[in-house]
Design goal:
With 145 residues, this protein is an all-alpha fold. The chain has a single domain (2-133), classed as TerB-like, CATH 1.10.3680.10. It has helices at 2-9, 15-20, 24-39, 46-60, 64-80, 85-94, 97-112, 119-131, 140-144. Helix 3 packs antiparallel against helix 4 (46-60), helix 3 packs across helix 6 and helix 3 runs parallel beside helix 7. The radius of gyration is 15 Å and the shape is globular. The termini are far apart. The relative contact order is 0.19.
Length: 145
């Protein structure tokens, strides 16, 4: 199911995204956000790590060596500064809604890679949705009606 979702979203949604995905800062911010999903429950399932690797390769078109280096940098950076605010803000201001949706879909795929959605993973996914400015805000008039 998530493979079809990722394919339908694609990797590049605008010309600006095409330029931004080449930026190391953008790649690192994305990788940090995706690693946060794995780290959420403090249990690193092999399936989640594989989904992390495959997600980064899909989003950025990286070769194997560059992907492992990016993953390593993201893990190191996350352990130095585990806040998701800075990397999410960078993506929110530099990349399109479509690209940010792709990142969130990849995060969901990582969370579900082991077959379970743990409470901590659900919490991180909810925070990512908010920080990436992807949360749908209900219409106040329709609620009060």
């Amino acid at each position: 199911m998530f493979n079809r979702l990722l394919e339908s979203l694609g990797t590049i949604s605008t010309k600006d995204d095409a330029l931004q995905v080449l930026e190391p800062e953008t790649q690192l911010a994305t990788a940090i956000l995706l690693f946060a999903v794995i780290h959420a429950d403090s249990y690193y399932a092999a399936a989640e790590s594989r989904a992390f690797y495959e997600g980064l390769r899909h989003i950025f078109g990286l070769n194997e060596d560059k992907c492992w280096k990016l993953m390593s940098r993201a893990v190191s950076q996350y352990h130095k500064e585990p806040s998701l605010v800075a990397p999410a803000t960078l993506l929110k201001h530099r990349l399109s809604t479509g690209f940010r949706r792709l990142v969130l879909a990849t995060a969901n795929r990582i969370a579900l890679a082991d077959g379970l959605l743990h409470d901590y993973e659900a919490d991180v996914l909810g925070r990512l949705e908010t920080l990436l400015d992807l949360r749908e805000v209900p219409n106040v008039q329709s609620i009060s009606a």
